[in-house]
Amino acid sequence: MAGKSITFSFKRVPDYRIVLATGAFGGVTPSGLIKMDLFTEYVPPPETVEQEIAEDGSLGTEIRRGPNERHVTRDLQIGVMMTSDSAERIGNWLLQRAKQARERQERRAVKNAEVPRSNE
């Protein structure tokens, strides 16, 4: 196919959005597609916090938090369904972008280490 080419145009659909993903969860569906939910993971704030009140009316030491359970919440941001071929292509694309990002971070770290710091 020498000499042939194709041009792709990119257009955002009306509900396009960018989401932060700190992880993914999913698997293979009964029909053989791959389902991936991207999630944001965090420790939620407590429902309540009890604190002492100092004599001057300011907040004092924290006494307790409720409930005492510590857990991690995973907010599912978006679900993606794909074929195994698409998953492989996307996986390879992500690995390439991750490598590029690491290389860029390493170059910045070296460049920042070479910049002399002033003694302020």
Sum this structure up briefly:
With 120 residues, this protein is of the alpha+beta class. It has one helix and five strands; from the N terminus they run βββββα.
Helix content: 25-40%
Strand order of the largest sheet: 1-2-5
Order of helices and strands: EEEEEH
CA gyration radius, whole angstroms: 24 Å
How many beta strands in the DSSP annotation? 5
Query: For the terminal residues, how far apart are their CA atoms?
Result: 62 Å
The structural domain count equals 2
Calculate the mean pLDDT score and round it.
Answer: 91
Overall outline: flat
The helix-and-strand class reads alpha+beta
The major beta sheet can be summarized as: 3 strands, antiparallel
What proportion strand? 25-35%
Count of helix runs: 1
Question: Which runs of at least 5 residues are low in confidence (pLDDT < 50)?
Answer: none
Key features?
120 residues, flat, alpha+beta, 1 helix, 2 domains, single chain, two-stranded antiparallel sheet
What does this structure look like?
- Helix content is about 25%, strand content about 30%.
- It has about 120 residues and is of the alpha+beta class.
- The protein folds into two domains: about 20-80, no CATH class; about 85-115.
- A hairpin with a 5-residue loop joins strand 1 and strand 2 (about 35-40).
- The radius of gyration is 24 Å and the shape is flat.
- The chain starts with about 20 loop residues before the first strand and ends in a 6-residue tail after the last helix.
- The mean pLDDT is about 90.
Note the topology.
Elements lengths: L22 E6 L5 E9 L5 E6 L5 E8 L6 E10 L1 H31 L6
Antiparallel strand pairs: 1-2, 2-5, 3-4
